[in-house]
Amino acid sequence: MVFEKDAKVFVPRLMDSVAPAWLRVARHCASRWMPLGLRELPLGDLLLPEYRSEHGVEAIDSNLLVLLTATEYVRVSGDTAWWERHERDLADIYGYYAPRVRGDLIEQPPFSDWQDSAQRRGRTFYTNLLYHVVTERLTPHRAFAIDRQRADRIHERIEAAFFDSELGLYRSVHGHPQVSLDGNLLALELGYLAAESRRAADLYRCLKTHALWSRDRVAGWNTVPAYPAHWISLSTRLVGLSGYHDRIRWSWLMALAAKMAFQMGDEAGANEILNRLEQMARRDGTIHEIYFQNSPYLPWRSRLYVSEADFSWGAACVVRAVNAARARPPRPRPEAHC
Fold first, then answer.
1. Is 284 left (phi over 0), alpha (psi -120 to 50) or beta?
2. Average of pLDDT values for 207-234?
3. What is the dihedral of CA 205, 168, 179, 173, to 10 degrees?
4. Beta-strand pair 290-291/249-250
5. Which of 10, 106, 131, 327 shows the smallest number of beta carbons within 10 Å?
6. Dihedral-angle region of residue 40 (phi above 0 means left; psi in -120 to 50 means alpha; beta otherwise)
7. HSE-up (13 A, CA, CB side) for residue 19
8. Average pLDDT score over residue span 123-143
């Protein structure tokens, strides 16, 4: 676990053997003009944490992802001794959010979650979805001193703030029209909506008929409608990445969509995405970070930016999707309406 000297507790957005880590991205983007032997910077033994992004803000979702991973690790491994050794630190990590909660929901600064090219100020579905799931998982542990009704209150606030009954989907930022693929898929994957429930079936059906999925038949770009131009950071615009978190296709989101399609009983939809990912991986010899929106989904590039490769986040999600495909076929879901 990582702590700042002033006792603010949060984990870094990035850990790398190059500091600041954006130098690795810049080196990768410049690699097309470099001799072959100089194109990659190897990872060193010492990993250096970064506590703030290029915008000078903390990563609001990092602690939640650490806690989510910790609870999942113990569930899968049964390693309760590890949990007992770290429980106090984990409780401090959860406590980081207390001063950032208003009316039971986290209010985040701009450029602070994984969609850090867009300001996304205030209450977002993605961050508060993670907050609800983590709170629910931690409530039984006395060290976290969580009121047993807290998760229910967070759920009620999320439904009131983000669910659009006409779309049948959750909007991305409170008070704004955007709908993002990440949060709606994670609501299914993380069990925010029970997998066997009518609501989960309805949300999946609505997601498949929404432009996020239906416009190109293969899900993978994240936000509709696009974020306002003035929300996008200057550095993102300067390198030609204005559509980074809305109009550009992400490998990890393609893979997560395939995984959830299998889990929701949509084998045809899942295979369509996985077949496309296989074609892309064979063509490129790797999994890239981002791709052009439309077929044949070439790795994304502009004059100043090149899609990262080999992209471990996307590759890991592809492996999970393939494992879902190999798993026992799921039981039929309830009939859905959208």
1. alpha
2. 93
3. -150
4. antiparallel
5. 327
6. beta
7. 11
8. 97
Q: Scanning the structure block, which residue is given the tokens 């991986």?
A: 281
SS3 for 256-318 is HHHHHHHHCCCHHHHHHHHHHHHHHHHHHCCCCCEECCCCCCCECECCCCECCCCCHHHHHHH
Tokens standing for 321? 């999707």
Contact of 289 with 28, CB cutoff 8 Å? no
| pLDDT above 80: residue 318 | yes
Write the CB contacts of 37 (distance below 8 Å, at least 6 apart in sequence): none
Integer Cα distance of 24 and 127 in angstroms: 27
For every residue of the chain, which 3-state class applies, written as one string?
Answer: CCECCCCCECCCCEEECCCCCHHHHHHHHHHHHCCHHHCCCCCCCCCEEECCCCCCCCCCCHHHHHHHHHHHHHHHHCCHHHHHHHHHHHHHHHHCCHHHEECCEECECCCCCCCCCECCCECEHHHHHHHHHHHHHHCCCHHHCCCCCHHHHHHHHHHHHHEECCCCEEECECCCCCEEHHHHHHHHHCCCCCCCCHHHHHHHHHHHHCHHHHCCCCCCECEECCCCHHHECHHHHHCCCCCCCCCCEEHHHHHHHHHHHHHCCCHHHHHHHHHHHHHHHHHHCCCCCEECCCCCCCECECCCCECCCCCHHHHHHHHHHHHHHHCCCCCCCCCCCC
Residue 160, both tokens: 């009131």
Distances (CA, A) of 303 to 33, 67, 233: 11, 39, 18
Residue 40 predicted with pLDDT over 80:
no
pLDDT of 1 above 50:
no
Strand partners of residue 224 = 179
Residue 179 CA neighbour count, 13 Å, CB half = 19
Which pTM value belongs to this model?
Answer: 0.87
